[in-house]
Specification:
The complex is a heterodimer. By secondary structure, chain A is of the alpha+beta class. Chain A has two domains: about 5-115, Beta-grasp domain (Ubiquitin-like (UB roll)); about 120-135 and about 145-260, Alpha-helical ferredoxin (Fumarate Reductase Iron-sulfur Protein, Chain B, domain 2, Orthogonal Bundle), CATH 1.10.1060. Chain A is about 40% helix and about 10% strand. Chain A contains nine helices and seven strands; from the N terminus they run E-E-H-E-E-E-E-E-H-H-H-H-H-H-H-H. The termini of chain A are far apart. Chain B is α+β, with helices and mostly antiparallel strands. In chain B, about 40% of the residues lie in helices and about 15% in strands. In chain B, the strands form five sheets. In chain B, strands 5-2-1-9-17 form a five-stranded parallel sheet. In chain B, strands 11-15-14-12-13 form a five-stranded antiparallel sheet. Classes of the chains: A alpha+beta, B alpha+beta. The structure holds flavin-adenine dinucleotide, iron/sulfur cluster and FE2/S2 (inorganic) cluster.
Chain lengths: ~260, ~650
């Protein structure tokens, strides 16, 4: 198969970027999208088709759709055209021979470009650091079977926990909101008895951090769900909103009590 | 004379660890605050260690290559994690997990370490559940188990097909908690280039900031490497693209002995190679062997017709199928250990019974299981794996059998460590896949996750104190010491040298050539002549690399090719050591199969008289032969036998 690629090139965070056009030929339909970029880079390096030689920088690691490292905006869609699939698991057979394919980085204020297609997603780590965990220390915990957990709850928690932290939801959202990502973590723990203890604190801290880091607000367009490679459901956002409201009311109650009505 | 002291505590097996803990030195809370520890790697081993050190009160610096600690290669583990909980009441115990691991490793692992691993295995599950890891549960709400190869009990805990992801996210959560508390400082997109020794002790690292390109220095009282395995020496493996051997190799060149480098695990169930553009291989979890049956056609004509595209798997009648694992190993059937299953697949394919376009594939068939349990059950157990298979191969495994073939997967070898997980460099500890420790010559499925978390949560937090207790009066190190100057300078010059070659070939081109040598001659079947040939070829390729590699760009900023070149330069040295180790070990054991040493029916033939030891290699220079040190393995508690999975 042959393709024309329009790829975003940007020297570094401060430089101005632009599209450049490349051609790749004789690509096997069984080739993955990233392997196709490997082939292009190999040409840039060995055939020196353009000087100075500067292969395209993109993030990737597992190439199995689980690490969340790959982050390509392909033909106007995060991770490309196939539903429920990361860019690394997208295969060229999903395109038509002769297609022109546009490849860009994630675009969001909170994810500045580092180089070409590589962006800085450390904002996600910062949100998790605010409470995306259960504050247990190593050792001194009860037997794993001490608390039975209904299978349905465990399964729902697992559905939410399947988020790979890729950021496609942010890239898909016109407000660049991180709501689906945050909601997935909040839900996982809200659904489990171990996680309930800190549920209120967690949801408030994570949402506050998300706002602080420059992610937009959620206006329920659900583009995130449509583009999430792990099919994380927007029901998690509804659950986050309930948790958030609950936390707020409780917080207000406590304030009132502390204010001393008697 | 050997310099190895494995520091195995005295006493009966089941009391060694208890005794150790009761007698080790501790560091008081006030002193912990004065001590700094560097952890390189944020996989299961590194993240769990760093989080635990932070909780204990040490000052911790953690490094990883990826843009987030959550993306370490451990995230990709699918199938599960073992623990001797005996929840299913099927006869499991610490002893049995210990015994299975020793036997599975073909009697080339250290008893005391393996027993400790089995002992702490239950704590891992408790810890992870407390962290909110959503393990699979049954309808009563209790934890569910499955079986893995080399075991006759169900002791594997799992979170769908994403166990590694969930365990790593648990450890990442613990790490994030400590980062927030300020006890841990995280350095992402940093790649360690060298280890710094001061007065013979590990005191710091040199790392490249992968965004700015700056070569930075970091000092500490002790250094932990948790940098994963070296399977990518073979170019194609199931490892992530960034998995590499460089940190361990640099430590080796600074004096840490390398243990059993030839012990490489080739996993039986991977998606077969299908093109030369391929960048990695994809594992189909071993858990599939719980319900899938492996077969090839009984008749050569059928296999030929399948390869020619004239017949399909489903055209072969039941009577014409050879379920060769069930035939050869009736007691364990499809659940024999990995090394045995891989060799059996290779044997059938080499004999002309292989399927797929290349003939290098066998079937893994779920038709029986689907008939017996229904498609829904199979989907709930393996849905995401089936989906992954379909995405890559474009065939529906619910309807036609999967095609699989062995691929490089895991490295049992690694830096030699003693009972405390300390290398031969004082102050350098090694955890997870990066050390050689617990799996002998073959690792059992679902035991790597167990080992990584055991090392990080439950072993290092004790043993590192025993070392650091002597360091409380040592002030914090400065990074302008001459030792740091020299190491930083060396690291920079090496990168400059790589950039200055300006040859013809890309790093990948040369890496693929190395991979081919390794797969053909240092792979599943090895022999003396082939290994000698491989050593010559590796040396030639190393020369060619330094004369003809082309690395674009500069030292500044993002430069992936430069880092790939730096890693390949190390692989080209490590590859030779792997071949040498394989050549010296005149026996077959576990994943190390020397064609000259096999029984009449093709099983591995160990030589306990001569080779019941860990080979720990000392580096003495690039063109000098490495020095072999032997740690003899004394089996005090188990009786050594020939592995038998037949009856
Ligand atoms: C596809 C697949 C499936 C698997 N499934 C299972 C399973 O089901 N059960 C099981 O028990 N095992 C399984 N394994 C094996 C297991 O996943 C690994 O052995 C284990 O996760 C290794 O963990 P680790 O912490 O030692 O290292 P890794 O997870 O490999 O982490 C290495 C860390 O070191 C960092 N690093 C490396 N080099 C440097 C450097 N120079 N500078 C800075 N940082 C560096 C990396 O960034 C990373 O953070 C599987 C392996 C694969 C490939
Ligand atoms: S919610 Fe989906 S799109 Fe967003 S980070 Fe998680 S996996 Fe990626
Ligand atoms: S490279 Fe890991 S998810 Fe794509």
């Amino acid at each position: 198969m042959n393709f024309t690629l329009k790829i975003w090139r940007q020297e570094n965070a401060k430089a101005k970027g632009r599209f450049k056009t490349y051609k790749v030929e004789n690509i096997s339909p069984d080739c993955s999208f990233l392997e196709m970029l490997d082939i292009l880079n190999q040409q840039l390096i060995e055939d020196k088709i353009e000087l100075p030689v500067d292969p395209i920088a993109f993030d990737h690691d597992c190439r199995e759709g689980i690490c969340g490292m790959c982050s390509l905006y392909i033909n106007g869609r995060p991770h490309g055209p196939e539903q429920g699939t990361t860019a690394c698991q997208l295969h060229m057979r999903k395109f038509k021979d002769g297609d022109t394919i546009t490849v860009e980085p994630w675009r969001a204020k909170a994810f500045p470009v580092i180089k070409d297609l590589m962006v800085d997603r450390s904002a996600f780590d910062k949100i998790i650091q605010e409470g995306g965990y259960i504050s247990v220390t190593t050792g001194g915990v009860p037997d794993a079977n001490a608390i039975p957990i209904p299978k349905e709850d465990a399964d729902l928690a697992m559905d939410a926990a399947a988020c790979i932290g890729c950021g496609a939801c942010v890239a898909a959202c016109k407000n660049a909101s991180a709501m689906l990502f945050v909601a997935a973590k909040v839900s996982q723990f809200a659904l489990l008895p171990q996680g309930r203890v800190e549920a209120e604190k967690r949801v408030q801290a994570m949402v506050a951090k998300m706002d602080e880091l420059g992610f937009g607000s959620c206006t329920n367009t659900y583009a995130c769900e449509a583009e999430c490679p792990k099919n994380i459901s927007v029901e998690n956002i509804a659950r986050l909103n309930r948790e958030y409201l609950k936390a707020k009311i409780k917080h207000a109650d406590r304030k009132r009590e502390a204010g001393g009505f008697g | 004379m050997t310099k190895l002291n494995s520091k195995i505590p005295e006493g009966p097996l089941h009391q060694k660890w208890t005794h150790y803990k009761a007698n080790q030195k501790l560091v008081s809370p006030a002193n912990k605050r004065k001590l700094e520890v560097i952890v390189v790697g944020t996989g299961l081993a590194g993240a769990s260690a760093a989080a635990s050190f932070g909780e204990m009160g040490f000052n911790v610096k953690v490094f990883c290559i990826q843009d987030s600690p959550r993306r370490a290669h451990s995230i990709a583990a699918q199938g599960g994690i073992n623990a001797a909980k005996n929840y299913p009441n099927d006869g499991d115990s610490i002893w049995r997990l210990f015994y299975d691991t020793i036997k599975g490793g073909d009697y080339r692992a250290r008893e005391a370490n393996v027993y400790r691993l089995a002992e702490v295995s239950s704590n891992i599950i408790d810890q992870c559940v407390a962290q909110g890891v959503p393990f699979a549960r049954d309808y009563a709400g209790y934890l569910d188990n499955r079986s893995f190869g080399g075991a006759q009990v169900s002791r594997t805990f799992y979170a769908r097909g994403q166990t590694g992801q969930q365990l790593l996210l648990g450890a990442y959560g613990a790490l994030s908690k400590e980062i927030k508390r300020g006890s841990v400082q995280m350095y992402t997109r940093h790649e360690m280039l060298d280890l710094v020794l001061v007065d013979g002790r590990a005191r710091g690292i040199i790392a490249r900031n992968l965004v700015t390109g700056a070569i930075e220095r970091f000092a500490a009282h002790a250094v932990v490497l948790a940098t994963g395995g070296y399977g990518n020496v073979y170019f194609l493996s199931t490892n992530a693209m960034n998995s590499n051997a460089s940190a361990a190799w640099k430590a080796h060149k600074r004096g840490a002995f390398f243990g059993n480098p030839a012990f490489v695990q080739i996993h039986p169930t991977c998606i077969p190679v299908h093109g030369d553009y391929q960048s990695k291989l994809t594992l189909m979890s071993e858990s599939l062997r719980n319900d899938g049956r492996i077969w090839v056609p009984k008749k050569k004509e059928d296999a030929e017709a399948i390869r020619a595209g004239k017949l399909k798997a489903n055209d072969i009648s039941e009577d014409d199928r050879d379920y060769y694992l069930e035939r050869r190993y009736p007691a364990f059937g499809n659940l024999v250990p990995r090394d045995v299953a891989s060799r059996a697949a290779k044997e059938r394919c080499d004999a002309g019974f292989g399927v797929g376009l290349t003939g290098l594939a066998v079937y893994l068939d779920f038709a029986d299981a689907i008939r017996r349990l229904g498609k829904d059950v199979i989907e709930s157990r393996y849905g995401n794996l089936f989906q992954m298979y379909e995405k890559i191969v474009d065939e529906n495994p619910y309807e036609t059998p999967m095609m699989i073939y062995p691929a490089v997967h895991y490295t049992m070898g690694g830096l030699w460590v003693d009972y405390e997980l300390q290398s031969t460099i004082p102050g350098l500890f090694v955890a997870g896949e990066a050390n050689f420790s617990d799996h002998g010559a073959n690792r059992l499925g679902a035991s790597a996750l167990m080992q990584g978390l055991a090392d990080g949560y439950f072993v290092l937090p004790y043993t590192i104190q025993n070392y650091l207790a002597d360091q409380i009066t040592v002030p914090k190190f400065r990074t302008d010491l001459p030792e740091f100057d020299a190491a930083a300078q060396e690291a920079r010059e090496r990168l400059e040298q790589l950039l200055s070659v300006q040859g013809k070939y890309s790093v990948d081109t040369l890496h693929k050539r190395l991979g081919k040598i390794m797969w053909d001659y240092v792979g599943m079947a090895r022999d003396k002549a082939g290994l000698k040939f491989a050593i010559e070829e590796i040396r030639k390729l190393r020369k060619e690399f330094w004369e003809n590699v082309y690395v674009p760009g500069t030292l500044e900023g993002v430069n992936d090719e430069l880092m790939k070149a730096s890693r390949l330069a190390d692989y080209l040295e490590l590859a030779e050591l792997i071949a040498r180790d394989a050549l010296h070990r005149n026996e077959s054991c576990g994943g190390h199969f020397r064609v000259e040493y096999q029984t009449e029916d093709g099983e591995a033939l160990r030589n306990d008289e001569e080779f019941k030891y860990v080979a720990a290699w000392e580096w003495i220079g690039l063109d000098a032969e490495p020095v072999l040190h032997k740690e003899t393995l004394d089996y005090e508690f188990v009786e050594i036998k020939t592995r038998n999975y037949k009856s």
